[in-house]
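Researcher: Good morning. I'm working through a list of sequences from a screen, and I'd like to move beyond sequence-only analysis. For each chain I'm collecting a predicted structure so we can compare shapes side by side. This is the next one on the list. No need for commentary yet; just the structure.
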Amino acid sequence: MDNLFILLLLPVISAIILAFIKSSSARWAALLLSLLQLGLTIPFICNFIPDASIQFAQSFSWIESLGINFQIGLDGISLPMVILTNGLIPLIILASFAHSKSGNFYALISFMQAGLVLVFVSLDAFSFYVGWEAALIPIYFICALWGDGDRIRVNLKFFIYTFFGSLLMLIAIIYLYQQTGTNDLSWATLTNLTLTEGSQTWVFWAFFIAFAIKIPLFPVHTWQPDTYTHAPAAGTMLLSGIMLKMGLFGLLRWLLPLAPQAVAQYGTFAMILSIIGVVYGSLIAFKLNDAKRLIAYSSIAHVGLISAGIFSLTQEGLQGAIIQMINHGISVVGLFFVIDIIQQRTESRNFADLGGLASRMPILAACFLIIIMGAIGLPLTNGFIGEFLLLKGIFSYTDHGVCFAVFGGTTLILGAVYMLRLFQKTMLGNISETNMVVTDVKGVEVLVLVLIVALVILIGILPNMLLNISEASVNQLLQQIK
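Model: Good morning. Structure tokens for this chain:
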């Protein structure tokens, strides 16, 4: 089966089905449907030829009066993102079993999955924008309805930030649409446009701001820590594990080939912002005592390094960015899941109330330690090869690459410090009397943790299975923009 459209259609059908299931069986139906989506992804992986071509391409006439077509396809840059999305969704659904039995909750996750996949497979700007917006709506309701604390104000801030970025991108897309002369919004047509220096400059900034907000990069990151903190566990996993990759993917798929001259001109500034985010996120995380908020700031640091690797415009930097997007997604979902388990058992995420949990939860402690090792890039874990390639690419950057690599490398040093501090404050030391009754992970919790640990180790040992997918497409992108 090579009908790519089915990967968009199935989550929409799943969302409709799940919306009508009111019993607790909704979670099992959601899991089954997400596993079916993952199963349908496997033939595309098996039949994919790791060259630079667009494969499984499909095109449908959409809005004939405007000449807009619906075009989708896969290449070595988009396929890893589809694998990440369809691979993590079943884990996120499993991880949320203890929290929600609502069919509407799982319907929103499925609908968001459709939007995410559409972003990654789109080969025209209009469908890309539709997917971009379609993924935002369900996550807003997931966070607003099932979040905690001051979730309404926090989610309004998140919505305003992302909507502002989306509006800028839409204006740029309309401008590009007018420049084609043929009313063609396909990726191939837009990336072959000959734009003036001034046009490239403002197109660059419109797309860059939209993507920077979604990632998020410093200084447009301020929506992220509060949103991650007050979102339900599944919402935080969706945002950090998959949704922020939309912005990083947008840099690769759209920004670099659309405005190569502007990228050459302003890339150093974008690199500086990315590196500032690395240092800033790491320093803030180092001082925090709220475990969930700590991981939120660590995410700012890690995605800043990925963005810097993209703007290095090197083969190592771009390859490192793609594999690290996958690695970050796996690790951050694992970290947020562990913190959610701790919060369920102890009713706290604050270090002052924790400590010594390893004595009561040895299985959780062992899995937590392995996930942390992957997050800080220990050799033979998933994070190592990605961070190595990113730093090598940044080091090779033509303008002050050594300086950027030194500051970017702080994510390795400070990351090890705050992550090991996180482990120490939660798992080691003396356990309080109130936490003596906590029980270790079991059932579905163990299954999710074991699967994440297996991925951390498997990708660490066999990174080439992912790197081979993207290598040819990355080389072609670099030739296209230079």
